[in-house]
Specification:
This protein is of the alpha+beta class and 570 residues long. It is built from 15 helices and 17 strands. Strand 1 and strand 2 form a beta hairpin.
């Protein structure tokens, strides 16, 4: 039955398939896009506000690191150590050096309002601006406060606080950094360090941050330290919002019927809470714009798909028509298909050309199959004869051996026995696999027979690794190489005629070398001539059974001898 096609119908089906296969993903994408963009405001707020919070957190950490560095400079100063312990009798000079050091440090840091160092006996206060809240003996006025107790209990670490209990300047609502000063030699407490700075430091710190909302920093007791956009929310609204923010993350918060998207983070170093506040409408507007652009791009993509579906359908149906004609010819099976070529730029063209190639090759293989069947029949007859003749020869040679023994003709008896053993091993119970040991024993019997012919002028030496004797090998691989050496290499050799067989392993391969010191030959000429047929047959048998990396390798030079190497897999 021939393949019937209707090109217009196929074209229509492929076109519709292309449209629907493109339309379905676009519909799915559209549905998920609307679902995605409906929730995008929260994701957008999370990404934006998290970035802001991380920047603010990083700036605060850097600021605290800077304050810590100032503290280390002052605490490690020899002048301040001597000033607080009063080890130097020249108290005026030490006080002046201490003042110079503190002034130099403060002048490089304009955000510092004041610096205080002191204990019950001696103290010094530096003011960048404003007037002090305390009269003399500041230490005695603040030593019993809860803040000082926290500083002392913090075991040498600095703390940041905002408290009315300790505020060095009268006009400023400042944040203070406090730390215990220890003797650098004895490690005992010798005083207190207080560094106050104005809350306006956050204004300079976050002035470059651009946001439609506000960044708010509060203390651990919810007092507002910094508000980037005071017009957005009042202080009481911020306080109520911070009080209700019980966990980190994005949260919608309603104030006076207006929704704000909030996110907050705790600065571990200072204990300050950082809050980002963005009007919900600002987030929605941006998400809506992105959604509209995406919808436009999807519609544009659908139009482009229509055009490409038409062009691809036209190209595919052209190849399908040609493929239909080829399949009809394949069904007839009359002759090879020639002078038909597909366009190999697409898969159908490649399939068509491959189909033609396989069809033509299949015809060739059918011819070869018929020839192989004839050869197989001939081989069966040959195998039958090869089983009959060796048995007949083996029995005849045994009879000759016993007759020679009877009449005491030992050379004839030895030759008959060797030939009997040789043909017995040739049979190998009908198996084509033997052991290396049996193969070498067969070689030895053959050599002894042939050596009688050469008047015992040939010498045979075995150098075989005992580990390989029980390894399996194809039958009749070594004996033809010995036969080739005896018949062609050694007869014309003058003097000692030596033949050596070496066997060893290397990695996962077995090497068997048949080495003679005969006249040698040109290996290429041997392969071209009929005399090289046996060698080619051995090489092909090895490669067929053991793989292409194995085989027979010949090295021979005229008048220098020949080495025939068999390489097989263990």
């Amino acid at each position: 039955m021939k393949l019937l096609t209707n090109p217009p119908s196929i074209k229509r089906k492929i076109f519709l398939l292309g449209i629907f296969s493109s339309l379905i993903p676009l519909v799915i994408i559209s549905i998920f896009s609307f679902i995605y963009f409906s929730n995008m405001e929260e994701k957008k707020a999370l990404t934006t506000t998290t970035n802001f919070l991380n920047i603010v957190d990083w700036n605060i950490d850097n600021f605290l690191t800077d304050i810590e560095s100032i503290g280390k400079i002052l605490l490690g100063s020899t002048d301040i150590q001597e000033f607080l312990t009063q080890q130097n009798n020249d108290l005026y000079s030490i006080r002046r050096d201490t003042s110079d050091l503190i002034v130099n440090v403060a002048n490089n840091k304009p955000y510092i309002n004041s610096i205080y160092i002191g204990n019950e006996s001696v103290e010094y206060t530096f003011k960048n601006h404003g007037t002090s809240r305390y009269s003399n003996n500041i230490y005695n006025q603040i030593k019993n406060t809860e803040i000082i107790e926290q500083i002392i209990d913090n075991k040498g670490k600095g703390i940041l606080f905002e408290s009315d209990e300790i505020n060095l300047l009268r006009e400023s609502n400042s944040i203070t950094y406090g730390k215990v000063i220890n003797d650098i030699n004895k490690f005992n407490q010798i005083g207190i360090l207080l560094i106050s700075f104005d809350e306006n430091v956050f204004e300079a710190m976050f002035d470059d941050l651009e946001t439609t909302g506000s960044i708010i920093v509060t203390s651990n007791d919810s007092n507002i330290i910094y508000n980037k956009n005071p017009k957005l929310l009042a202080d009481n609204q911020i306080f109520n919002m911070v009080t209700n923010l019980t966990s980190n993350g994005v949260k919608n918060y309603n104030i006076n019927k207006e929704t704000f998207v909030t996110n907050n983070k705790l600065n571990v170093s200072s204990g300050f809470k950082i809050i980002s506040v963005i009007p919900y409408q600002e987030v929605i507007n941006e998400a809506t714009n992105v959604r509209d652009i995406t919808l436009f791009l999807m519609i544009l993509s659908f139009l482009i798909v229509l055009i490409f579906a038409y062009l691809i359908t036209k190209k595919i149906t052209k190849q399908l028509n040609l493929l239909a004609k080829i399949t009809n010819k394949l069904e007839e099976r009359k002759q090879k298909i020639q002078r038909v070529n597909f366009d190999v730029k697409d898969e159908i063209g490649k399939i068509g050309n491959r189909l033609i190639y396989l069809y033509n090759r299949n015809n060739d293989l059918l011819v070869q199959l018929y020839e192989s069947k004839l050869k197989a029949k001939e081989s069966e007859l040959f195998i039958l004869q090869s089983h009959i003749n060796p048995h007949f020869l083996y029995n005849t040679l045994n009879s000759i051996y016993w007759m020679a023994e009877k009449y005491k003709i030992k050379p004839i008896a030895d030759m008959a026995l060797n030939m009997s053993d040789y043909y017995k091993m040739m049979l190998n119970n009908g198996h084509y696999i033997t052991t290396i040991q049996d193969e070498l024993l067969r070689v030895q019997r053959y050599f002894e027979i042939m050596n009688v012919r050469h008047a015992n002028k040939l010498n045979l030496l075995f150098d075989i690794d005992s580990k390989i004797l029980e390894k399996k090998i194809l039958k009749l691989l070594v004996q033809p190489l010995v036969e080739n050496a005896i018949n062609h290499g050694l007869p014309m050799k003058e003097g000692n005629k030596n033949l050596t067989i070496e066997g060893y392993t290397k990695e996962d391969l077995i090497y068997i070398d048949v080495i003679d010191n005969g006249v040698g030959f040109d290996y290429q000429e041997m392969l071209i001539s009929n005399k090289g047929y046996a060698l080619k047959n051995i090489n092909e048998r090895i490669k067929l059974y053991y793989g292409q990396e194995c085989g027979l390798f010949i090295e021979s030079k005229k008048d220098q001898g020949t080495t025939a190497r068999i390489i097989i897999r263990v």
